[in-house]
């Protein structure tokens, strides 16, 4: 059989490929992945034992990880057997805040590094405040500034705007406005810490009234007071 052009040859090629089960590379990939997952799930041990992925997420089984690898993330691999031992505090915090029903678009959202720890400088874009944190997300004292980034050198934060007058030790008395700003800053810090430390526990408790935003300030203050009241005598010493 002679063919004098590609146009004459093409129909016969299509017929040949269809009869021999030819499929596109994409279809082959999907078919291969599906087959690998099915073969994995037939192995009872592999289907039951948890593993830690290279994305630092625990999967209930190697088969579950393989399914994600096949259809979502081709670079995903098994990091080690068993659940992930490493804790990623910033990722946990970010996820918790993302699902918080009281969250607004202007709420603070932590910035996380690729390893799941916090960036050294965190900022509240809406309010314009920035502060230093530890890799675990703890606020470093005396680092909150507005309209600029704080200095986080040597693991210790420093105010960029000093509270002392230049050329002497005379301290200016705080005005009512200064006191109001100071209190608002404290409230904001307490609420941030409270949300980070307590939200998961509140969700597990199942009491939705504990998530009422109208009582958040009071709950945050009471929580912070109880945290600082180490001797439980209901009073704080300077």
Automatic annotation (TrEMBL):
Disulfide bonds join 123-130, 132-152. SUPFAM superfamilies: Kazal-type serine protease inhibitors, Thyroglobulin type-1 domain. Residues 87-152 form the Thyroglobulin type-1 domain. It comes from the Eukaryota. InterPro entries: Dev_reg/Prot_inhib (IPR051950), Kazal_dom (IPR002350), Kazal_dom_sf (IPR036058), Thyroglobulin_1 (IPR000716), Thyroglobulin_1_sf (IPR036857). This is Uncharacterized protein. PROSITE patterns: KAZAL_2 (PS51465), THYROGLOBULIN_1_1 (PS00484), THYROGLOBULIN_1_2 (PS51162). Pfam families: Kazal_2 (PF07648), Thyroglobulin_1 (PF00086). Keywords: Disulfide bond, Repeat, Secreted, Signal. Residues 1-28 form the signal peptide.
């Amino acid at each position: 059989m002679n063919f004098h052009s590609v146009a004459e040859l093409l129909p016969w090629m299509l017929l040949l490929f269809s009869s021999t089960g030819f499929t596109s590379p994409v279809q082959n990939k999907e078919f291969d992945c599906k087959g690998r997952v099915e073969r994995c799930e037939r192995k009872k041990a592999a289907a039951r034992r948890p593993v830690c992925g290279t994305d630092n997420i625990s999967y209930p089984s190697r088969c579950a990880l393989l399914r994600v690898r096949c259809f979502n993330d081709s670079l995903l691999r098994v990091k080690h057997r068993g659940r992930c031992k490493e804790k990623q505090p910033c990722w946990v915090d970010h996820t918790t805040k993302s699902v918080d029903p009281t969250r607004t678009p202007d709420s603070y959202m932590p910035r996380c590094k690729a390893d799941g720890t916090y960036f050294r400088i965190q900022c509240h874009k809406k309010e314009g405040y920035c502060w230093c944190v530890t890799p675990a997300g703890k606020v470093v004292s005396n680092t909150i500034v507005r309209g600029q980034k704080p200095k986080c050198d040597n693991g210790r934060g420093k105010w960029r705007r000093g509270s002392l007058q230049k050329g002497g030790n005379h301290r200016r008395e705080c005005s009512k406005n200064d006191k109001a700003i100071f209190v608002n800053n404290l409230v904001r810090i307490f609420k941030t810490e409270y949300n980070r430390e307590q939200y998961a526990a509140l969700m597990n408790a199942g009491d939705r009234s504990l998530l009422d935003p109208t009582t958040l300030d009071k709950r945050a203050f009471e929580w912070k007071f109880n945290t600082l009241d180490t001797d439980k005598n209901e009073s704080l010493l300077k």
